[in-house]
Amino acid sequence: MKLRLCLCLATISVVLAGAAPLQPARRPHYGGTLRVEIGPTVQSLDPAVVAAGREEADAKAELDALLYQQRSEDGTFVGTAGSGPFRVASWELGRRATFAANQDYREGRPFVDSIEIQMGRPAHDRVVDLELNKTDFAQIPAEQARQATDRGVRISTSQPNELLALVFLGSRSGKESPRMREAIGRCIDRAAIVNFILQKEGEAARGLLPQWSSGTAFLFPSETDVRTAKEIWSQISPSPKLVLGYDSADTLEQSVAERIVVNAKEAGISLVSRAIPASGEASLGQVQGETRGVTHVDARLVRLRMPSPLPRIALTAFIHRLEPIAGTVESPVPQSASPEDVYYCERSIMNSGLVVPIVWMPQVYGLSARVRDWKQPAAGESWPLADVWLDSTDSR
Amino acid sequence: MTFRSKLFVNFMLALLLSVGLVTAGVTVATRRAFDELNRQHTDALVEQFQREYDRRGHEVLNRVQGIAEAEPTVRMAIDLSRPNADISVYVNDARGVAQSHQLDFLDFVGTDGSIISSAEWSARFGYKMEWVTQKEDWATRGSFLMKLDTQDGPAVALMAVAAVRVGDKDLYVVGGERLGKEFLASLVLPENMRALLYLNLDPAFQPANLIDSTGPVVEAERFEPVIELERTHPGSLTEKINWTFDAASAEIFHAIPKLGRQNELLAVLLIGNSQRTVVTLQRHILWLAIGVAAIGILFGLFLSWWAAARVTLPVRRLAAGAREVSDGNWNTRVAVRGNDEIGQLAQSFNRMTQELVDQRERLIQAERVAAWREVARRLAHELKNPLFPLQTTVENLQRASTQNPDQFEEVFRESTGILLAEIENLKTIVGRFSDFAKMPQPELAPVDLNGIVRNVVKLFEAQFCAVGRPPITPELHLGENLPTIQADTTLLHRVIENLILNAMDAMPAGGILMMRTTPNDGNVDFEISDTGVGLTREEADRIFTPYYTTKQHGTGLGLAIVQAIVADHGGRISVESEMGVGTAFHVELPIKPPHPQTTPVVAEEVHEKKVEV
């Protein structure tokens, strides 16, 4: 009896102890200002105005998604500003913007009253502001996610949906070019790039599509084979000196490029890295052969963010975006969404050696503690800031 | 060139030589002193640079050790000592630490030699740095020079290694400072000095590898011999490089080889010391020396001139005195100053002139005595002959008056006749002496010598052919166009008479008497020669001496009178004679005598005789 009573009491204690953290879910409520910091400086919110760089283009697309309701087939926003969940309340060119909740939004008014957007904040400052609770939402470079987590920042990480690839410029084709591309592709240590440069945020890339999307990425090799690379390179005569370009404004690209140079050097490949002026998604196609007519490069690093989790759509978008750079991507877009078509198309591109996938990177966001109902956007989706609400009880 | 000029030139040569030697000596000594000073200065600077270099090495070592002992590093070492430690979190640590410690190179290296984090080349993570794990006591190793691979190519750095040991695992901190233009610019060097650095990164000399604090060195190829020498035989050496023809542009470079851990040559430090200041100072001193030398030479020039004048003044006085003496002024005296050699010479000169005067006086006195003796002898001789008949005649008169009174009248007449004759003879003798004493001054007038000769010969024609004596044949060779001369006709007549008489006396056995007149360059020569017995050399030497005669009844005044008359006409007379052949007298008369000559029958005139035997 006594033992049974003790067990009963213990059971009750355990149940109570376990039930303590399980507070009842708070109900969303309206109000508050969501503080957002972004890295680039957006010069214009007009969809018709082309952004100067990739980062600005990405940020501008996210902001436009808050202001516009409709998108065209090519992904650009159409309609009138303010048709989206928010409308522009104030605008300081290049510095800050305030979006107010659109009361008449057809899908319902956003929870927050307004969004204050501070532009031109470096990644390090964004992390610090998150740490100091000076901002509610900011995108964080993947390579800094681990450090931010260690410093107590609330992190939200997406699936790896942005490919960093090495693309050989089509104008540099030659008799020995396929072998050179193969040698360089084999000498790259992708695991070290993921582990050290990306701080384990991401995964080594095998194909043009991630394993979680296509399911066939494992069929492409990604292992480093320095010995084979050496042998291939030693058979190339005369041994050329190649130049690998990277976006001068992208520190991640610079780090990866330098690492590839080190890998290539180990294999005896003469490869140097060189910064080239930043080019946005829109101007990507202009970088061909000569970059801005100043810097001679044989290959360059390119970031490719998946526009959709669907393999066919993503691959088709990649092909369209790589074609102006690589020049001779002869493979047609997948005819159907069947895994076989997508795979063969992907294989075809991979076999050309013009594109060397390096790593898949996730999108990392830092959130303050009061941000509620944040849902990690899927590939191709915009920031769901209209769906989040601010917990006024959490004053941190 | 005068003695004074010679002395002046000698003084100047000695002065120039002295000044030149002193200047050269001072220049050489100055240059050597400057070279020595420069060497000491360079050595001091090199030593200072070496200390600065060592100090930088210690700084690097201290920084690396400071990093190794810092809390984050120790924590990293502890973390990495755990099994399955995640080294990726430290991949970016080195860059920040290197910046905060002002290091160009910083690598965190794991116990297996893998690079955990690299500041200079962050992409090298994961690669091995195996030399760090070699057995070496890094705590005592200190800093060292090392060749590194960087993104921009090979580089040389002053490195240090510190190990952090946790358990059985080590974390190595490898840091360093790049040896480059920044390193050179940070060195504290004195003025006029610069540091160059050659990075021995290539198998052969590359001019681009030679840098200074601003970048690649201009005309780097000039250093190739030095660098090549260092590459083959590393060691300290000094080389002077003249950048232009201007010596001031030269620099003395002290090469210091810098070796690595394996004693391989990694760099050559060149400490350059500009010679501009030294050369400028040397030039200043040289110009100063030249200026002083020039002033010295000018001063010496004046001093030499003055000294030569002062030294040669007594000599010049002596020379002037000697000239005076040579001109006949034997009473000349030289002022004596001091008792040096010149003073003694002047005293000797004065004594000599005094002695000459005294001797001349004594000689004149002796000659006067001798002349008077000769006069007395001749007078005695001349007067003695007439006196003896006078005495015997007077004695005959006395004897006749006493012994033969009857014959006295006749004896008286004869004796008075003899007495008168002898008295007349005495008067003649006295008259001759009187004539010689009272030789008249020549009264000059244009004279035809040939005419005089012919007149005199005409007077003697009877005597040439006199009965009772061998004939004498006169031969006249009178020159045509003989110019008239300014002379006294009577005296020249007497000269020719005496010479003819003398020749006739010399030809008792007869002979040929030849007379010749010839013009002779402003003079007229008259020669008279006989074929008589001739004269001895002694007779020829004394033939013109008054009262000297070789004849029984001669007065010895004939030729003396001839010589006096010729001298009064500014001419000269000489005699040539050969025993048994004959005698010839040569008379040289000027067309116009310079001035009337007196006839001092003294010894001074004797020397004018030209006697050729």
Q: Which descriptors apply to this entry?
A:
heterodimer, A: alpha+beta, D-Maltodextrin-Binding Protein, domain 2, seven-stranded mixed sheet, six-stranded mixed sheet, elongated, B: 613 residues, alpha+beta, Beta-Lactamase, six-stranded antiparallel sheet, five-stranded antiparallel sheet, rod-shaped, disordered C terminus
| Proportion of residues in extended strands of chain B | 15-25%
Given this structure, which CATH class of the largest domain in chain B is correct? Alpha Beta
Distance between the termini of chain A: 49 Å
The CATH C-level class name of the largest domain in chain A: Alpha Beta
Judging by the overall fold, what is the CATH architecture of the largest domain in chain B? 2-Layer Sandwich
Q: For the residues shown, what is the average pLDDT of chain B?
A: 85
Percent helix of chain A: 25-40%
Strand content of chain A: 15-25%
What is the tally of helical segments of chain B?
13
**Global mean pLDDT of chain A:** 84
Radius of gyration of chain B: 63 Å
Number-wise, the strands of chain B total 18
Rg of chain A, rounded, reads 24 Å
CATH topology of the largest domain in chain B: Heat Shock Protein 90
- Assign the CATH topology of the largest domain in chain A: Dipeptide-binding Protein, domain 3
The CATH superfamily of the largest domain in chain B turns out to be: Histidine kinase-like ATPase, C-terminal domain
Q: Any overview of this molecule?
A:
The complex is a heterodimer of chains A (396) and B (613). Chain A is an alpha+beta fold and 396 residues long. Chain A folds into two domains: 33-158 and 364-390, D-Maltodextrin-Binding Protein, domain 2; 162-361, Dipeptide-binding Protein, Domain 3 (Dipeptide-binding Protein, domain 3, Roll). Chain A contains eleven helices and 19 strands. Chain A has helices at 2-19, 54-67, 123-131, 145-150, 177-187, 190-197, 211-214, 226-234, 251-266, 311-326, 339-352, and strands at 33-37, 70-71, 77-78, 86-92, 96-101, 114-118, 137-140, 154-157, 162-168, 203-204, 242-247, 271-276, 290-291, 295-296, 299-305, 355-361, 364-367, 371-372, 389-390. Chain A has a seven-stranded mixed sheet with strand order 4-5-6-1-7-17-8. In chain A, helix 5 (177-187) packs antiparallel against helix 8. Chain A is elongated and about 70 Å long. Chain A starts with a helix and ends in a 6-residue tail after the last strand. Residues 14-24 and 280-293 of chain A have low confidence and may be disordered. With 613 residues, chain B is α+β, with helices and mostly antiparallel strands. Chain B folds into four domains: 70-177, PAS domain (Beta-Lactamase, 2-Layer Sandwich), CATH 3.30.450.20; 179-274, PAS domain (Beta-Lactamase), CATH 3.30.450; 350-434; 441-608, Heat Shock Protein 90. Chain B is built from 13 helices and 18 strands. In chain B, the strands form four sheets. Chain B has a six-stranded antiparallel sheet, with helices on both faces. The chains are: A alpha+beta (396), B alpha+beta (613). Chains A and B meet through helix 6 and helix 9 of A and loops of B.
